[in-house]
Every structure is written in C-alpha cells, then in structure tokens.
Amino acid sequence: MGRLKDKVAIITGGAGGIGIATAKLFLDQGAMVVIADISKEALEKASLEINHENLSYCVVDVSKPKDNEKMVAHTLDVHNRIDIFFANAGIEGTSKPIAEYPDDIFDSVIDVNLKGVWYGCKYVIPKMKAGGSVMITSSVAGLKGFAGLGAYVSTKHAIIGIMRVAALEFASNKIRVNTIHPGPVNNDMMRRIEKDISPENPGEVLKGFETTIPFGRYVDSNEIAQMALFLASEDSKMITGCMHIVDGGMLTN
Q1: Which residue in 3, 79, 184, 214 has the most C-beta neighbors within 10 A?
Q2: What class does CATH assign to 8-185+220-252?
Q3: What's the pLDDT tens digit per position in 26-68?
C-alpha cells in the first residue's frame, strides 16, 4: 500500500472489467476511488465485488456535459479534491463495413468514446489538483485499422488528439495526460465483438485474434490496471503526452 496514498481517483467505465480491476488496485495502493458508469445496477454490483470503504459510485452518462459536471461535484463533495482521472468508458459499436454501418450506432460510438473523453477532460481536469494524472483508454485500434470496426477505430484514433492537446494545455499545472492502448482484452467487450463478427463461431474469432499476438493470448484487465497505476503514481511524474501500449506485441506484426 502507498503509491497512491490519500489520492482521489475518478474512473469512468468503472463497472466494466478494466474499471473494476483498476479500482481494486488503486484502493489497495491507498487511493479513494469514485467509479462512474451509466447503469446503477452495474455500479451496485461492482461496488459489492470491490467491497471497500473508500469506494463510492456515481451514475453518469459520459456523453452528457451535465453528467460530467455531476460526477465532478459528487467527487468534490465526498473527497474535496481530484488527483487522478481515468477516462476509461467506451463501447464497441458493431462489426460492419463503412458502407453498411448503421448511422444510429455510429452516433452512439461517437457520443461515448469521443464526446465522453472530451467532456471528461473539459469538466474534470480544471478541477484537479496540480501534479495530477489523466489516463485515457484508447486501444491498439487507435494505432491501426481493423476492417469492420470503423466507428470504434475512428474514435480511438481521435482521442489521441484530445490527449495531446490536453497534455499541452494543462502542462502549466503539471497535470500529466496520457493514453493507454490495450490489445484485445479478455473481457465482456471482446466476447461481444467475437460474437458480432461470427455469431456461429465466436471461438474461431478469438483464436484468430490470438494468432496476431506474439505472446499468444489476450491481455488481462489487471495488466491494464497495472499500467494505469504506473501512470497515476509519481513514478510517471515526467511522462505526459504519450501513448502506452499493452498488447503482448500485437502491433509489432
């Protein structure tokens, strides 16, 4: 315990696999954590799993400015400070070529993955303590293309731009801003992607992805949490405006 002692962290997408793993690790390291997500039921379930006195939750639609303001107000009311912001909320959309991609799903992916990060940075970072840290979950899909995942790929590329601008704009307050780029993660999102690509044989999709990873397996949520801990801690105090890849070597192919 101790790398985040007395720090206050907000984690969006907090009821998902990466969010839960990161909340547990941050709490173990002495932080006070607010998890935010769109479903109260999912947040209650996650809170029971995490089971820590320094955890609270806030029901938030990250695509809505007012909800981001509510999340900030909740955190300041409970803890009177914000040191760490992990903009982790995201959705995958569907697997369709650009020419066939449903407009409503495209809009939803833009709303959550792109606007959600934008509004989080807009409303959270100005309220953070000097020397704080912001991590944004992008993806290997933010660094290369994947046919059929155009909306997801587009948003994950775009938030690198937000990261770079925020790193410059908040540098005077010594606030670090970085992106994390997971490869395929062994979680519910990848199960949905696998099934969407091949409803009849999602297991073959999993095997296909694994053949592109030199380490031969998906990333575990805890491995993303470890990267988030490094970036949240003072160990990364001179690292900002950077992309941090956790993919088992996938991008070397």
Answers
A1: 184
A2: alpha beta
A3: 999 999 999 999 999 999 999 999 999 999 999 999 999 999 9
Question: In degrees to the nearest 10, what's the CA dihedral of 20, 150, 71, 21?
Answer: 10
CB 96 within 8 A of CB 102: yes
Q: Distance between CA 241 and CA 14 in Å, rounded?
A: 23
> Hey, where are the domains in the chain?
8-185+220-252
Instruction: Report pTM.
Output: 0.95
- pLDDT, tens only, 188-238: 888 888 888 888 888 988 998 899 999 999 999 999 999 999 999 999 999
**Which one-letter DSSP state was computed for residue 218?**
P
DSSP secondary structure letters along 10-51: EEETTTSHHHHHHHHHHHHTT-EEEEEES-HHHHHHHHHHH-
123 is catalytic: no
Rounded to the nearest 5°, which phi and psi values hold at 85?
A: -130, 120
Most distant CA pair in the chain, distance: 53
With b for 16 or more beta-carbon neighbours within 10 A and e for fewer, the 78-112 pattern comes to ebeebbbbbbbbbbbbbbbeeeebeeeebebbbbb
Query: Residue 169 burial by CB count (10 A; 0-12/13-18/19+): exposed, middle or buried?
Result: middle
Interacting residues of 139 by C-beta distance below 8 A, sequence separation 6+: 152, 156, 181, 182
Residue pair 182/190 in contact by the 8 Å Cβ criterion: no
Pick the catalytic residue from 57, 119, 123, 152: 152
